Inverse folding.
């Protein structure tokens, strides 16, 4: 499974890169707005840290404007993936961008039918938002499993990018299902390291060695 970081904070991206765990980055207008920087400047900074896919979202809502913005975003760096919202205009934009060789990530996926349409349009990635489904008492990970089964049935090459991840359980379930990508906040990535028995074991090893008074 590939690990993407869902953030616009460059320092977080650099740290994940240092750990050797960064395969790509996803952003959105909300995340970039929190930085107080220009959208394209943030994308340039991120692309300077990683050569993995960097999803940058359009702000337009019509097909023509989406395609126009997508071309501008794609010119920033060769690893930019254009994030397109799932709407009829968005699906048409994905078809056009696919024909131009511009990779796309269809976002705000909440049903397997939506994911099917996005794949048929030629999307490079689809992003089911599992946390938001959980918030309204639906099993977001069940949707991921449905999408994976449908794609397997028909040989779609579109990758399933599990988004709106809230905790390590989401990451584990995505990995068990065989999802291609998990994109997560930096806080969740850090949580993947943690287990109380690991911490306790390390403390015990160090304590025992110190008490032995032996030389290393």
């Amino acid at each position: 499974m590939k690990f993407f970081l869902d953030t616009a904070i460059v320092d977080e991206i650099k740290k994940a890169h240092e750990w050797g765990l960064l395969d790509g980055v996803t952003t959105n207008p909300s995340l970039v707005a929190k930085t107080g920087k220009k959208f394209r400047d943030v994308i340039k900074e991120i692309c300077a840290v990683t050569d993995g896919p960097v999803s940058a979202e359009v702000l337009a809502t019509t097909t023509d404007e989406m395609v126009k913005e997508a071309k501008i975003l794609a010119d920033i760096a060769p690893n930019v993936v254009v994030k397109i919202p799932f709407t009829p205009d968005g699906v048409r934009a994905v078809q056009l961008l696919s024909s131009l060789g511009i990779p796309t990530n269809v976002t705000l996926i909440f049903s397997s039918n939506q994911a099917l349409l996005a794949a048929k349009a030629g999307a490079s990635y689809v992003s089911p938002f599992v946390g938001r489904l959980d918030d309204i008492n639906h099993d977001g990970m069940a949707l991921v499993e449905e999408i994976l089964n449908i794609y397997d049935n028909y040989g779609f090459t579109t990758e399933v990018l599990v988004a709106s991840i809230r905790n390590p359980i989401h990451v584990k379930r995505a990995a068990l299902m065989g999802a291609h990508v998990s994109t997560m906040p930096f806080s969740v990535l850090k949580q993947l390291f943690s287990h109380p028995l690991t911490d306790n074991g390390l403390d015990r090893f160090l304590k025992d060695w110190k008490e032995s008074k032996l030389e290393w």
User: Anything to note?
Assistant: The chain has one domain: 2-212. The two ends are 38 Å apart (CA to CA). The mean pLDDT is 96.
